[in-house]
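ok trying again, last paste got cut off:
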Amino acid sequence: MSSIQIFQGCKNSNEVSLLYGQNNAMWCQSLYLRGYNPTTKERLTSKMVDSFGQQMKNHHIKYVYLFAGPFLSNGHLPEYPFTDSAVNVVKKLKQNNPDLIILPWVGGIQNKTVQLQDSLWVNNAISDTKLLIKRLGVPGIHLDFEYILSGDPYLDHFVDNHNNANKEDYGKNVNDFCRRLRISMPKIFISSVVVATSPETKPWKMKTTLPELKILTKYIDQLAFLYFDTGITDNKVFKHNCELLSKDILFLYSQNKIKYLIAVGTFINEPQLHGYRHMDIENIPNSISVIKSGLVSVSPPKRILDGIALYCDWRTTDTEWREFDRYWLEKN
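nice, full thing came through this time. structure:
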């Protein structure tokens, strides 16, 4: 189906493409900073680093979030991203592709290892984040804090959210962390991620409200919205809620003109989580079509989306890369 058929009211695909940028991002595994795959124990090689960097360049990935966490229960980061090996990998990636923006990916799950309500934990986390940025020689950080909702028997095994502990102040605490980090390092690039604000999405992570996001976007430079694991089973509902997400991004853009991304998943959930992600809807071709349609629905037309964020590099197949190239990059 052509762009003309999908996007009624747009004259051609070039007109649609004016509504979004190609400053795309990707969440990447700890292999690159750890030096080995923690599951298979396979060692990272120079050839693997070169191949990874070339792959990012081939698919117009500008931002790579290299996993460097999670924060430990005392707020400190693990040792592996501070090693000489990690520093050398970052140097090699930058030498091979100077345009690549490398952001260590840190964070974790509230009430598991993350304790944003604890001032000592926050002090340690901010201190280590500063040290990591300086040690790796990178321009900033990608923050991924998550609050897992209670009530799902499978997810309840991962974190103790008894009586929804610290839930009421979670959004405020995230904002306070980002505010303190910004004060501590005024010039760094701060990226973060939240689940979609759309009203009919039913993710297993807690949503951040628009008033909370209005404050958050004062302190950060980039925000990605996860538009997968929505729990939506009907494509019309999926499309409508993406239109509503686009309108929320337009509102936030009018308040704080930072870089906004919408994230697409390139993975298959564990069987226990299949109810949150229906692949007949949340596949790459349909997700990208729906995202573009949502952008077209924004009135007046405005380029509010800086690009797509892909989760994740270790699960993206060759077929999914080709789909991304065809439907988002519009390569023939």
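cool. The chain is about 40% helix and 15% strand. The longest helix spans residues 235-255.
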